[in-house]
Every structure is written in structure tokens, then in C-alpha cells.
Specification:
89 residues; alpha+beta; Alpha-Beta Plaits; four-stranded antiparallel sheet; 3 helices; 31% helix; 37% strand
Length: 89
């Protein structure tokens, strides 16, 4: 399992619409900041048939209205290492 937290910067007047666009991504949740254009975002990848967290983070940068993204926190548990070992072997 991978979980990360980001601050996604937008123009303040575009915070709400960008929030809606981001939440269309699988595993993405917006927790606040829409009124000031600094969205608090989490991405969770449980190893299902969804893009890895890194792919999702990169895709968020390309969303219309996003000015920049800043990674704040990342957790990759034991589950992630086990999956990686299985893929390599």
C-alpha cells in the first residue's frame, strides 16, 4: 500500500473546480483548501488495478488549473515491498 499527501496549488478562484477534477482520479481525495487555492490532497494506491501513486501524482500536474504540486508525505508499507519483489521475480 502507498499513501501520499500533497499540496496542490491553484489560482484561488479555481480551487473548487480543480478539486472536482482531481477527485475524478481513482484513489484521490481532496480534504480542504479550495477557498485559498492550496488543496490538501491524499492519494492511496492499494495495489489494485489502478495507477501507481507516482503516475497519479504526475497526472495531477497536467490537470487544467493546477499551478504546482508539492509532495508532503509518503508511506509505502511492507505490502509495497512484497508486491515489488513479486513483480521483479
Amino acid at each position: 500500500m502507498n499513501i501520499c499527501s500533497l499540496v496542490v496549488h491553484t489560482q484561488p478562484e479555481k480551487g473548487a473546480i480543480v478539486s472536482q477534477r482531481l477527485e475524478k482520479f481513482t484513489g484521490v481525495e481532496v480534504h480542504g483548501g479550495t477557498d485559498v487555492g492550496k488543496l490538501i490532497v491524499t492519494i492511496e494506491d492499494e495495489g489494485e488495478e489502478i495507477s501507481p501513486v507516482s503516475d497519479t501524482m504526475n497526472a495531477l500536474r497536467d490537470v487544467e488549473g493546477v499551478v504546482s504540486t508539492v509532495l508532503i508525505y509518503h508511506y509505502g508499507g511492507e505490502e509495497s515491498m512484497e508486491e515489488m519483489k513479486r513483480e521483479v521475480n
